[in-house]
Write a structure and sequence with these properties.
The protein has a five-stranded parallel β-sheet, with helices on both faces. By secondary structure, it is of the alpha/beta class. The chain has a single domain, classed as HUPs (Rossmann fold, 3-Layer(aba) Sandwich). It is built from seven helices and five strands. Helix content is 48%, strand content 20%. The longest helix is centred in the middle third of the chain and has 20 residues, at 58-77. Helix 5 packs parallel to helix 7 (133-140).
């Protein structure tokens, strides 16, 4: 099996995402791989033109968006202990946009060897109506994807 060099871990800060992070940390340690934690926040609520028409300050909206990015970055950094982050050369990314698009884009740009992400196990109806970020990433990712399931008992790395 080829050695993993870069592991991308998207998170929505849920408990199941935390399990995926723990699995990814173990895999990164075992492979001496770089760990990249990522989250995706929503797009700006309005276009520049809409903001101008409503007389919304573009600078204020950009500042608020930057604040969201800063808060999300700090939340990412709290997910793993500083010494673990240092030993795994952790990188923390916050993107805005559609989660599956941004995860795939990041995997390509970073040349990730593996994506480790959670599956929330939504009902089939919800997946049909809303789509599943995990399903879309699995289908379109440029690398392998390890899906950590919510009801998966006792999964441990060797």
């Amino acid at each position: 099996m080829p050695k993993l060099r870069k592991i991308l871990v998207p998170t929505d800060f849920s408990a199941i995402s935390n399990r995926a992070i723990a699995v990814a940390v173990d895999m990164a340690k075992a492979n001496k791989a770089k760990l990249i934690l990522m989250t995706v926040i929503g797009d700006l609520p309005m276009t520049d033109e809409e903001m101008m028409m409503l007389r919304v300050s573009l600078d204020r909206v950009k500042a608020a968006n930057q604040e969201q990015i800063n808060v999300a970055t700090q939340k990412l950094k709290k997910l793993i202990r500083p010494e673990v982050a240092k030993s795994l050369r952790a990188q923390f990314l916050v993107h805005d946009g559609k989660p599956f698009v941004e995860i795939i884009r990041a995997a390509k740009d970073l040349k990730a060897d593996l994506i480790v992400m959670a599956s929330h196990g939504h009902s089939r109806v919800a997946e049909i109506l809303l789509g599943s970020t995990t399903d879309r990433v699995v289908q379109k990712a440029p690398c392998s994807v390890l899906v950590v399931r919510e009801n998966q008992p006792g999964f441990k790395m060797p």
